[in-house]
Design brief:
globular; Glycosyl_Hydrolase_39; 25 strands; disordered C terminus; 491 residues; eight-stranded parallel barrel; TIM Barrel; EC 3.2.1.23; hydrolase; 2 domains; glycosidase
Length: 491
């Protein structure tokens, strides 16, 4: 039975799932080539950022992976400025490590997004230099924080326009909304005093809870400081990528009740490429295939809601924890703790050198090669499907021609390792295609859609036997897709 839709994203009630599963099969078209990646320099603007975090703690080595950055097609990169790495001795700053990073990413056509965090234990009450480490709280530490932020701003004025204040403060119960709000205002005002045009990103929330956001906005409203915020960045790791959106929508509605200029952005989300015992999305049998699917579903799900989006992160991070607390004091751990966070697009070795580019690296390239500022989302794209499963479907049109691209994927479960597909029929009432092709975003392969499998009558299009699975595929106007001749890219 056909189901009719007038919305870009609805979950379909499952009917006859067992029959649906039995019908899964490999469906192949004639391949006509592969997507041509575009470098960051070749793309004017897009929705896409990449994570370059944790270099403040040396969990990755920029010199090892910098050659792969521009080729991703990302337009922004999130970096952590690292107070404790910059100021190892009171009042003395070393910015050389950060200088070379910022200068190089700009040279590759990527805009730096610089986060001020974390604490600095050389000051009493200065906090710890790690996630959940706590804000600077003493008079001396806060004064030193102000001086460090001012030094950062003076140094990178003209090179850095996007500034994010702290990371996931809500993971530490001592970092109350009021405490964060006070730190945010003093920091944002220092930044704005030297860079009036700066874009300020706030909160960087791990848990997407309205109470924390409401308290922050209340504080700013009472202090007449709402103008300091441009974007509230949200994280919110979920095994099924689409599961987080109801919480995002609540935050959006809350923000709109305070301000008409503040937007939300997805500021840090990624997926492991193997089963790991630590960090977000742990204890699940992830593979490099399911990582690629998760990446595409999350980023295209964000795009389908007009949410700026970041993939965390470019390379696996080798975490080394050498400091801890004992009786409330910072101490050196006798046995450092070594773990690996495998969310990277690049597989790293234990010494932070590059092992190889994962399939997710190429999937990210596929995404950036097509979806840039020249494509505009078509709100409430109308479609009809004949399915017993739950799908995400979004329509886009090209500024230059009005030709269309439609993204489709099964969204009911956490991405799996399987690449089996099932055929389905789609009807688009307001389509616009001349030569439609099929694109598997995970592999980058582009296929002919046989003329026997699609019909057109005015703007009404019917596509039959379209292979779909739990990873995004496209029905796209061929003229909007650039192909390459190289057939050697690994799947």
């Amino acid at each position: 039975m056909k189901t009719y839709f007038r919305f870009s994203h609805l979950f379909v009630t499952l009917i006859g799932f067992l029959s649906y599963a039995q019908n899964k099969q490999d469906i192949t078209y004639s391949s006509i080539g592969e997507l041509q990646p575009r470098s960051s320099h070749e793309i004017t603007a897009s929705n896409w950022s990449i994570g370059g975090e944790t270099m403040d703690r040396d969990f990755t080595d920029f010199d090892q992976w910098k050659q792969y950055l521009g080729a991703t097609g990302a337009k922004k990169i999130r970096l952590q400025a690292g107070w404790a790495k910059c100021e190892r001795k009171k009042g003395e700053y070393n910015f050389e490590w950060l200088d070379k990073i910022i200068d190089e990413v700009i040279a590759q056509g990527v805009e730096p997004w610089l986060q001020t965090s974390y604490g600095n234990p050389i000051y009493e009450g200065g906090g710890m230099p790690n996630l959940s480490g706590g804000f600077p709280v003493s008079v001396e530490a806060l004064a030193a924080w102000d001086q460090w932020v001012m030094a950062l701003v003076n140094r990178y004025k003209g090179r850095v326009k996007i500034w994010e204040i702290w990371n996931e403060s809500d993971l530490n119960s001592e970092n109350t909304p009021e405490a964060y709000s006070k730190l945010f205002v003093r920091t944002a005002e220092i930044i704005k005093s030297k860079i009036p045009e700066a874009k300020i990103y706030a909160l960087s929330l791990a848990h997407i809870e309205t109470e924390y956001v409401a308290s922050f906005l209340d504080y700013l409203k009472k202090a007449n400081k709402l103008h300091l915020v441009d974007v509230i960045t949200l994280h919110g790791y979920t095994y099924r990528p689409e599961e987080i959106y109801p919480k995002y929508e609540k935050i959006q509605h809350l923000i709109q009740s305070y301000s008409d200029h503040i937007i939300i952005g997805q500021g840090e989300l990624g997926c492991p490429s193997e089963n790991q015992s630590y960090y977000a999305l742990k204890n699940y049998p992830w593979t490099e295939t399911s990582q690629s699917k998760w990446l595409l579903r999350k980023l295209l799900g964000d795009l389908g809601r007009d949410i700026p989006s970041l993939y965390f992160t470019i390379i696996d991070m080798n975490y080394v924890r050498v400091l801890g607390k004992e009786n409330g004091k910072v101490v050196q751990l006798k046995n450092p703790i070594y773990t690996v966070n495998t969310k990277g697009l690049i597989k790293s070795k234990k010494d932070n050198t590059v092992d190889y580019l994962k399939p997710s690296y190429f999937a990210y390239q596929n995404l950036t090669s097509i979806f840039d500022h020249s494509l505009k989302r078509i709100p409430n794209y109308p479609y009809i499907i004949d399915t017993s499963g739950s799908l995400s479907v979004y329509g886009y049109r090209a500024d230059s021609s009005d030709y269309q691209i439609v993204t489709i994927w099964e969204n009911e479960d956490t991405p799996t390792d399987s690449t089996k597909k099932t055929s389905n029929d789609f009807e688009f009432a307001n389509g616009n295609f001349v030569d439609p092709v099929y694109v598997d975003m995970r592999t980058g392969k582009v296929y002919e859609i046989p003329k026997s499998d699609w019909t057109k009558k005015g703007t009404y299009y019917k596509f039959m036997n379209i292979p779909i699975y739990d990873s995004p595929i496209l029905i796209a106007e061929k003229s909007l897709i650039k192909l390459k001749s190289d057939k050697n890219k690994p799947e």
